[in-house]
DNA sequence: AAGTGGTCTAGACCACCCT
DNA sequence: GGGTGGTCTAGACCACTTT
């Protein structure tokens, strides 16, 4: 791990314990504290600043930002975008199941009758705040033993490392919904907080759809960023 | 304008004339060429690299990137997606205004003090059902007489036909919100119906942002389709 | 005047790729 | 070994705010 990443990680944790408006140590102080140069501290601050977690005011200081509605997110992958935002990504597995595919699942994944699927429900955190519920569905045949893996990180990474399957997100459907009782409880939000529901499919290079995920993002903390990265 | 921005701008233009796979000058060469230090060149390269326009390979060099699939993710335009759904698209103009740009508008459109903007609010229908409210903002200087045009169809088409300006959607931010009283009334929905808010910017080929639109879609009837097109 | 965020330098050094 | 991208330094300087 390079130096600025250590600084970033540490700063990220510190900020999480502070309140909006609180002032951070000065750049010089941070540089001395971490035994690192001005430029390296700034590189870490830049990441936090561009993800709107802090605000630098020339001549005044650096402050913890108000948590605005404009947090950042890409359609790429939860884990990578959390990293980019200087937050730690973590997933808590809510449920895992191996079961026969119903009609709907068979259609979505292009499976034959009698095929089995794996379902994985996960609650995803950014710095200990629940931000998203992921419900994934995959063909069991293609990923034997998947449920034995550690799924607290990136699902795509596990698929790549263990099964050498590289997925790309083909198409996503985004809608606005109110959370169910259960989901609201998991995300720790009121029932009236609108959420973003993203239904996405992962396909291999040969176009076969091998993953279907329904994600529910907290609407008050999340914004999807779509476009040229 | 700071130095790295000049370098970035110049590099951006250069890259546009090159082909994928072509090699850029080395960092040292660029530094000498622009009369600037290594770090400053790198800062510009970092921007291009994180937006996937170039790829740096340690020990080899820096190369123009292949346009990737994820880069091309776009939101379909309202008019075209209505067409695809077999519905007729129509827009009712709610308000049009020519007024001085406030700070926020100036920042978004990159305008100087004293510049004027055109705002256009439209209610968009699919088969006589109100589906979306669009609030657009454009620099007045660039589009003289825009308000005299028929705006019941596609705004982008008008801009193209009348001003020969071809816009591409640069980046869109999607969030889930509840509608205001006014917006709920316009869309004929209860206040508790979650909506999709899409903030998008249109830019010309030379990267200038000349349009900013906030769209509010009925969440119960509208789904955004994001995919490789 | 002193202190702050932000830019920039000139160069060292590392990891890596090519002979 | 020589060239490349990438990280980092120690400090200078600028723009700005506060005292």
Automatic annotation (TrEMBL), chains A, B:
What keyword terms does UniProt attach to this protein? Answer: DNA-binding, Transcription, Transcription regulation
- GO biological process entries: negative regulation of DNA-templated transcription
- Domain HTH gntR-type intervals: 1-67
Matching InterPro entries: Bact_HTH_transcr_reg, Chorismate_lyase_/UTRA_dom_sf, Tscrpt_reg_HTH_GntR, UTRA, WH-like_DNA-bd_sf, WH_DNA-bd_sf
Molecular function as annotated in GO? DNA binding; DNA-binding transcription factor activity
- Source superkingdom: Bacteria
Under the heading CDD domains, the entry gives: WHTH_GntR
Q: Which PANTHER family match?
A: MANNOSYL-D-GLYCERATE TRANSPORT/METABOLISM SYSTEM REPRESSOR MNGR-RELATED, MANNOSYL-D-GLYCERATE TRANSPORT_METABOLISM SYSTEM REPRESSOR MNGR-RELATED
Q: What is this protein called?
A: HTH gntR-type domain-containing protein
Q: Which organism is it from?
A: Subtercola boreus
